[in-house]
Structures are given as C-alpha cells and as structure tokens.
Amino acid sequence: MTSIRQKQDFDPEIVKIAQPIANQLISLEKEGYTSTLVPFKQRSNQVECAVHECVTEVVEMIARASQIIQARFQKEEQIPDADIPQEATLATWTSLFDVMYEKIHNRDPQVQKEVFSQPMQEYFSIPWPFMDRVFHLAGALFEEKEYGQAESVYAFLGTLQPAVFEYWYGKAVCQQAQNNLEMALMTYGISLALQPENPRIYYQMAYCLTLLDTPQAAVKALDMAISYAEKDPNQQEVLQQAKALKASLKSNMS
Question: How far apart are the C-alpha atoms of 38 and 110, rounded to whole Å?
Fold first, then answer.
C-alpha cells in the first residue's frame, strides 16, 4: 500500500481564486485555530461564530465519512488472511472515533480551541496506516464512480490532516465529476496553497471555468498551466492538453 504523507506548509495567501475561504482561514489562524477549520462556504467575519458553524460541519462530515469507512472496512476485514496492519483496522478507528466525537462535540470554546489548535490527526494520534488505507478507499470509490462518497472521504482526510495536497485535490476532482464546478474551483484553489506550481491544478481549474462559460478566465489559468508545465519534463501530457484547450477557446472567442 503506497503511503501519502507529503505534508507541506499551508500558505493561505496563495489561495487567490478561493479568496472568501482564504480570508476566513486567515482570520481563524490569527485566533489560534488550525487550518483544519477551513470552512466550506463564505461565512460571517465573526470568528467565534464561524468556528461554531465549522465545528458543526466537521462533526457531520466525520460522522458521514465514518459510515462509509465502516461499511467498506467491515467487508474487507471479512476476507480471510487480509493483510491489514492493526493500526489501520476498523477496531482502531472505532476507538479513536468515540474519543474524537465526544471531544469535538464539546461546546466549550476553550476545549474547541485546544482540539483545533493543531491538525486533528496529530491531536488524536490517528496513525498514518489508517490514513493511507482511507486514502486508497477514496480512490477506489472514485473509480467506482461513487463520486459523492469519495468526496466525503477525501473531505474527511483533509479535515484530519489539511497539509496533504492529495486530499484536497482528490476532493476537488470529485466535486468536478459531480458538476459542482464552483465548489471544485474553491477546492482546487486551496490545493494551490500546497503546490502553487502544479500545472495540473491550473488545467483542471481552466476546464471548470470553460464549463462555466468564462473563457477569458480559463485562458489565464491555461497560461499558468502551460508556463509551469514547460518547466517540468514530467508534465508533457498536461502541457499538450492545456495548449489544445487554449487553442480551442481562442478559436471560439475570435
């Protein structure tokens, strides 16, 4: 099982296309809250109000994802001789979930600030083998075209550990697959905070902008994709895709 552990520094200043989210994230971080509390829609400027709203969404999202995880893990663990590390088993998650759920549900602002002062994966000591197994489950759900469930699982992972690019990118791709294009753009914007020179992100954003009938914005995103892809010999496929889409847009705009 391949591990996804490429944590990177989170810089909300880079998230220009998702400015409402970035502004709220910065406000929360100034008050000592971690970027785990990235809100899913634009909120009031009152930090404490935003925190309570976010906590409610976090609880609901974790519970929803946990149901998906439980159903799939139970089936997998019924397979004889399944090679699953103890730290990644359903039993391990169930014990962690009970503690987490009780702590997050606590409405005391000081308790909430303590919980969200660092990524929840670190605060609750959630093992990486479990995170890796859930990540591969999200990928499997996407391949099965269960885009809504896959999005929930990616969102769950990004909430537990927001410094992993693949969690945000996976969530954005799922949103795009469900035609939730504005939400996908915001999530792609957040992923740019972790990999600001990744041409694939700009290409995906351009594709969303094209579908939203904003060709000029799409061309700007494609210019960024082309610029970064030209510097990376491993991004030739993205480079060709971006050039082709840009040519098509330019032709239609003329």
Answer: 19
